[in-house]
Design brief:
The protein has about 375 residues and is α/β, with parallel strands linked by helices. The protein contains 15 helices and eight strands. The structure holds fe (ii) ion (FE2).
């Protein structure tokens, strides 16, 4: 099997990298950026800071700050109008995964028209679109380095995975100082999301030597630093390491794939509006336990990268330890079960068959080391409820 490897054309990584945004845009020959972000970043003044940077450099910049968490097709309509009204020649996704994913969708929709549904997997879109510049303010989604966007269909609550090179940012600005103000809960949830990207990319049937290197590096960095940033958000060294890990993990899964954790997580997010990283965390230990037998050596390598096994530990023992380590991590990070999160048991049970069907339809479970049946997925949903 041939692996197709793609990364952003430019990245600027380091403290203060945000100040290089105008230079990056100029180097791409672009003039009229639309800054795509959310109301929270506007309230904190971060949006104005970026707009001022752009305008002081002589660029004609405008802003659309009405993106929503878990972006919906409906939320994009106003954004498309903003792109057209500004006659934007590029979009800047500024924020967590949701603003970046919104910017990606707008880049394609403004050029090609909708509906967004026509871009969902198994389709892959690499045609005309506005160039995308991505600036993450969380260390998690990795969207700055991926060729995917995830958009919920407002008609039926389906979280659609939309792949293709046109969704890959042409440039990324990766400045960990933007993550210093993240609260502990968001820090934990986004960090576990990044860990899921790294582990899933490594055990995926689409893994390759490039994604492998990115995965193992990310796993080691997250293991060493996630608890640190959870307990002390102002730990600069740990924040910097988490930011690097999140981007590496994004590069890993963009060039490999995610698997069953993400496949099952998206429907939870769509139906119960659980934050993406949190719904991954609710599933991560149980899905890993289910999947280990299909790739014992690969999970053992994850355990060694994570630091809970060494080269002398047998693969069987090491693979078991990564399952235990994930459960312990989720405990330390106070990840709730769906039950303790407040999800009604009857509603959960009622929606389980539909969620299982949507999980399989996303294509991600097909890359899992153990291929799950519809019944397997329903059983895991039942097991993790709490
Ligand atoms: Fe994710």
């Amino acid at each position: 099997m041939t692996a197709n490897i793609a990364f952003p054309r430019y990245s600027r990584i380091g403290p203060g990298a945000i100040n290089e945004l105008p230079a990056v845009i100029a180097s791409l020959g672009l003039q009229r950026p639309l800054l795509v972000t959310d109301a929270y970043l506007s309230r904190t003044g971060a949006t104005d800071r970026v707009l001022t940077l752009l305008r002081d450099a002589g660029l004609t910049a405008s802003v659309f700050d009405r993106t929503v968490p878990d972006p919906t097709t409906e939320s994009l309509d106003l954004g498309v109008e903003s792109v057209r009204a500004h006659n934007a020649d590029c979009v800047i996704g500024f924020g967590g995964g949701s603003p970046m994913d919104s910017a990606k969708a707008l880049a394609v929709l403004a050029s090609q028209g909708g509906p967004m549904r026509k871009f969902k997997t198994p389709n892959s879109y690499s045609g005309p679109a506005l160039p995308i510049i991505a600036i993450p303010t969380t260390a998690g989604s990795g969207s700055e380095a991926t060729q995917f966007t995830v958009i919920s269909d407002s008609d039926n609550d389906e979280k659609m995975l939309c792949p293709g090179l046109s969704f890959l940012p042409v440039a990324a600005i990766i400045d960990y100082e933007l993550t210093l103000s993240m609260p502990a809960r968001l820090t934990a949830d986004t960090g576990v999301d990044a860990l899921a990207h790294a582990v899933e990319a490594y055990v995926s049937r689409k893994a390759n030597p490039i994604s492998d290197a990115m995965s193992l590096s990310a796993i080691g960095l997250i293991s060493a630093n996630l608890r640190r940033v959870y307990h002390d958000g102002n730990d600069h060294l740990a924040r910097e390491a988490m930011m690097a890990a999140a981007t590496q993990a994004g590069m890993a899964f963009s060039n490999s794939s995610v698997t069953l954790v993400h496949g099952m997580s998206r429907p939870i997010g769509a139906h119960f509006h659980v934050a993406h990283g949190l719904s991954n965390a609710m599933l991560f230990p149980a899905v890993t336990a289910f999947s280990v037998s299909g790739a014992v050596h690969r999970y053992a390598e994850c355990a060694r990268a994570y630091g809970v096994a060494d080269p002398t530990t047998s693969d069987e023992i090491a693979a078991g330890r990564i399952v235990d380590a994930l459960a312990e991590l989720c405990g330390d990070l106070e990840v709730p079960t769906p039950k303790s999160y407040g999800i009604d048991h009857d509603t959960w049970t009622q929606l389980t068959p539909l969620m299982a069907q949507q999980a399989i339809a996303s294509g991600s479970p097909a890359n899992n080391p153990v291929l799950p049946s519809h019944d397997d997925i329903e059983r895991i949903y039942a097991d993790v409820y709490g």
